[in-house]
Design a protein that fits this description.
mainly alpha
């Protein structure tokens, strides 16, 4: 159950990042709602995961998935750089998060 909360919290964080990106370009109600709602829902779900998982593991996985997701979304939809160094760094984040999950 805790891992489901982390997955949904990470997805909500990615929605919050997209909302932040859109709100920085066009301050509209929808964009601000995505921004605040995404991050708010994300933190609430992360908090629920603490009842099932160690805080250090849950937080690290949440940050890792959210960061990797935000980078991928920004590369695919907002034209951010796809340089090899960024892709390697992204792979290191994913490997680190996977290692933490396997070690818990």
């Amino acid at each position: 159950m805790g891992w489901m909360f982390i997955i949904f919290a990470s997805m909500a964080e990615i929605v919050g990042v997209i909302g932040l990106r859109l709100a920085s370009q066009n301050w509209s109600f929808r964009n601000v709602l995505m921004y605040i709602g995404g991050f708010g829902c994300s933190v609430a779900l992360l908090n629920l995961s603490f009842s099932y998982l160690q805080v250090s593991i849950a937080y690290a996985v949440w940050v890792g998935i959210g960061t990797a997701g935000a980078v991928i979304i920004n590369m695919l939809f907002f034209g951010e750089s796809r340089r090899l160094a960024r892709i390697i760094s992204l792979a290191v984040i994913i490997i680190g998060v996977t290692g933490l999950k396997l070690a818990s």
